[in-house]
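User: quick one, fold this
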Amino acid sequence: MEPKKTKSHKNEAELTVHHSRAVADYAMVQEGLLVSDAKAAHLFMRFTDECAQARGDEARLLDIISAYTFQAFPQTTHLVLATKVDARKLKTTMVRSREGKTPSVTMSKTLAKRAMDEKVAILFSEADQDQGDSESIVLSNIRTAIVAPLEGANKVFGILQLDIRESSKGIFGKKDLDRVTVFARHLALVLETLRYAQEQSKALESTIHALVHSLFLKDPDTAAHSERVQAITMIVAQYLGMKGTDLEALNAAALLHDLGKQGVHDKVLKKPARLTETEIQHMSHHSKLTETILDKIYYPEHLKSVPLLAAYHHEKMNGTGPYGLSGNDIPTGSKIISIADCFDALISPRVYKKAMTVAASLDILDKGAGKAWDPEVIAAFKACLPEIMTQVYGRPAEEAA
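Assistant:
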């Protein structure tokens, strides 16, 4: 029996169909461009590649769109990108000038409406002024403009407007209209993919919050510890130069690293005394339980490392951790979580022990360098310690000395 299609499945299917159609259209146009305009065709290919690499990074994607628009249409003075808020209202998403500035530019509501209603790109020039349908463009001293619809999965969701204001740059012609039409079709696919990625990200974020809340209900102390470990991990990771999707994945993994403790018996997890060897063995299973739980979540491609980054936080440099990984086989992110996890456990009071001093905690880390923890990551942690003490614990930076 086939599973019932939910609304999200339907939207995903529509996007897939639209993607296939757009790719097919793009391929045909690309073939024509290779014959008539090889330079533009190669430019569009590079545009495709860079947009794919940007993934869900909206700011980077908008920069790529701007850069390639002015490369493909160098005579353009301004670029305006607008998307629908509702059936009647458009919201400006981006305005750029050829110099990279963000000027105040008027969007032609009349041409935008025509382009969206008719689902075709509209070419306007000064000779069309007597039509009386482009007052906003005329009043803005625009000599010529092209407004193209952005069509997603069976609907138009915005417009792309390019204009020329300088007489020395000439005017847009039929060839420009055709190329903008092609560019707008592909741009629509890029923006739809971005929207879909953002929806996935929101869904994953809500799942993570739900998991953290469930951990809080199980053991508030463990949940608070996880949040501190996450904060420490982010400080050290950024110090080591980690950024982008690697940092995003590590951020989630650090927060969820102890999620497997939900599978640990309360009499062990909340025992007001030191654990026996048998209890320590039971507790040590939480790393693999973390992987088991997190593996059941769907992740975008760039976040698929989250389960193992979290699960490997008890791996040791000498290979004596739960998974038996050693040295460089342990991901750097997991090494950072491991040190953050240990440090917070040492300087925080527990029901069975008092909090250690910062100096005593650092001494334990130093003694474990090369055996349990990576010496280079320990050095990075120490360099960040003043910031960690003030930002994470609200204590004087001098305690790190």
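User: anything notable?
Assistant: The chain has 15 helices and five strands.
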